[in-house]
């Protein structure tokens, strides 16, 4: 409540807050938080670092970038919350994130793993992605298919909200 009152007080010094009634909630959100970033696989690859087993050409990364570019605004928000711990990206979007979003390969937790025909271990499909929010670090298993990755990623970002269980 103190933060809201401080915001109202400071805002009122510049602009009569009652004048904001002419704006819809969506318009106010845009004015205060900025435009929603449009994620496209081609631009995402330039704003993300790949390390520890992944490159921009890794099949898992290609799948991830396609999935991210298909996210709804709510899924983008949940993904940002999951990976960074913050509700919103900084002004400038992913490009302005510091430290840079880094995606690394997470090795399967199962002791028994077998390579399938694509060279990916089936055991990876049993694991969820995890994060280190302080470093904007996503630890992603090399899932066997894009569909498995989407299912596991959505489960982690939507069901893991507000929890550090997947860190």
UniProtKB/TrEMBL annotation:
What enzyme class is recorded for this protein?
transferase
Q: Which UniProt keywords apply?
A: Transferase, Ubl conjugation pathway
Quick one: signal sequence residues? none
Q: Which residues form the HECT domain?
A: 1-167
Q: What is its EC number?
A: 2.3.2.26
Q: Which GO terms describe its biological process?
A: proteasome-mediated ubiquitin-dependent protein catabolic process; protein polyubiquitination
From the UniProt record, list the reaction(s) this protein catalyses.
S-ubiquitinyl-[E2 ubiquitin-conjugating enzyme]-L-cysteine + [acceptor protein]-L-lysine = [E2 ubiquitin-conjugating enzyme]-L-cysteine + N(6)-ubiquitinyl-[acceptor protein]-L-lysine
SMART domains (alphabetical): HECTc
UniProt GO MF annotations: ubiquitin protein ligase activity
Identify the InterPro entries for this entry: HECT_dom, Hect_E3_ubiquitin_ligase, HECTD1/TRIP12-like
Cited PANTHER family: E3 UBIQUITIN-PROTEIN LIGASE TRIP12 (PTHR45670), HECT-TYPE E3 UBIQUITIN TRANSFERASE (PTHR45670:SF4)
Q: Which family does it belong to?
A: Belongs to the UPL family. K-HECT subfamily.
The name of this protein is HECT-type E3 ubiquitin transferase
Q: Which organism is it from?
A: Aegilops tauschii subsp. strangulata
């Amino acid at each position: 409540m103190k933060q809201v009152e401080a915001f109202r007080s400071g805002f009122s010094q510049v602009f009569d807050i009652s004048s904001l009634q002419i704006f819809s909630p969506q318009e106010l959100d845009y004015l205060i938080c900025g435009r929603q970033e449009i994620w496209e696989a081609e631009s995402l690859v330039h704003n993300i670092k790949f390390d520890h087993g992944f490159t921009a050409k890794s099949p898992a990364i290609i799948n991830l970038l396609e999935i991210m570019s298909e996210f709804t605004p709510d899924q983008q928000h949940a993904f940002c919350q999951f990976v960074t711990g913050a509700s919103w990206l900084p002004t400038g979007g992913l490009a302005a994130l510091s430290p840079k979003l880094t995606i690394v390969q997470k090795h399967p937790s199962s002791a028994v793993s077998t390579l399938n025909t694509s060279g990916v271990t089936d055991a990876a499909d049993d694991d969820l992605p995890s994060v280190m929010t302080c470093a904007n670090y996503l630890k992603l298993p090399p899932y066997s298919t894009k569909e498995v990755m989407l299912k596991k990623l959505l489960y982690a970002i939507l069901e893991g909200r507000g929890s550090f269980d997947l860190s």
